[in-house]
């Protein structure tokens, strides 16, 4: 049990990966704590499990951009929305290796390759396997996000040396149909199960700021935290509003509510890497500092996410320096 809690409410039966079962009421109660109580509790959990001043740096690369057949309401890469994103063929292995080397030389320890697919075709997967092997040879951790996987594909990725597979649940079950209609959350769970069964680390998070309620945010955190075991890596994205997507023009989330979401992820998934993901470009440095205090210990590092902007690496280094944060080494 959590003895440092300033408030005995909302503590699950245990805090181990497989035993804790959170309820939406419990997590909503966390969201509703006075801000200082929530921050104290989240930071205390964070310190118990991590060096509180270490931040892991992951760099993203879009290896296949645009033209996606899915209809995710937030995404600039869906073929059906008219955004400024130009479709591009899949990159060649050597282009990816060059980008990964640059990311490594800039201080990133993990390289994440994203593709605008519903799922990879076998021929496309084969080129990705070559990318994974080559990036690993640079001494970096590898991550891929390629959409839904078919039988046997996760095993091939594992065999190539893939360390993490990113596949987000994105939002709570009851809100999912408002955002995406071309697949169900069960489809997402099916791929997450395949990734877990293949022995690849699971990276699974979601997006907030899509017009959902606080209870829906709590339900998203519960859904992720109750995966058994919970993911090794949990990206929390703030919606990046892109003109031409259905969610463009959504009321912007109170930044302190984003911080609360990070805190709830930390409390419910004490040993996971919690990534302060998309949305940092429009976030003040003060809010980012609060996110680190609340338990975020990973960021996307580099001037671009997949198609949208991210703070320049130089600016992130300066922020880390001001906050006395250091980069986590590879493998940590
Ligand atoms: N196509 C694959 C899929 O959807 O699983 C992989 C790439 S997709 C771009 C990866 C994740 O990026 C999505 O699951 C979503 O969480 C996130 N994402 C996409 N567009 C976003 C946006 N505008 N703001 C925040 N996160 C976004
Ligand atoms: C994740 O949770 N966020 C990243 C990564 N996983 C693949 C993607 C963010 C994408 C933001 C919109 C874009 O740049 O296209
Ligand atoms: Fe396609 Fe992924 Fe974008 Fe959805 S989030 S439209 S699946 S690229």
Could you walk me through the main structural features you see in this protein, from its secondary elements to its overall organization?
- There is one protein chain.
- Helix 8 (214-225) runs parallel beside helix 9 (255-268).
- The two termini are 26 Å apart.
- The chain contains eleven helices and ten strands.
- 38% of the residues lie in helices and 14% in strands.
- Strands 1, 2, 3, 4, 5, 6, 7, 8, 9 and 10 form a ten-stranded parallel sheet that branches.
- The chain is globular.
- With 332 residues, the protein is an alpha/beta fold.
- It binds S-adenosylmethionine (SAM), 6-(5-methyl-2-OXO-imidazolidin-4-yl)-hexanoic acid and iron/sulfur cluster (SF4).
- 6-(5-methyl-2-OXO-imidazolidin-4-yl)-hexanoic acid binds next to strand 2 and strand 7.
What is the fold's blueprint, element by element?
Elements: H1 24-31, H2 35-49, E1 54-64, H3 93-105, E2 110-115, H4 122-137, E3 141-145, H5 153-160, E4 164-166, H6 173-179, H7 185-197, E5 201-203, E6 206-208, H8 214-225, E7 233-238, H9 255-268, E8 273-276, H10 285-294, E9 298-300, H11 313-323, E10 326-327
Parallel strand pairs: 1-2, 1-9, 1-10, 2-3, 3-4, 4-5, 6-7, 7-8, 8-9
The protein binds S-adenosylmethionine, 6-(5-methyl-2-OXO-imidazolidin-4-yl)-hexanoic acid and iron/sulfur cluster.
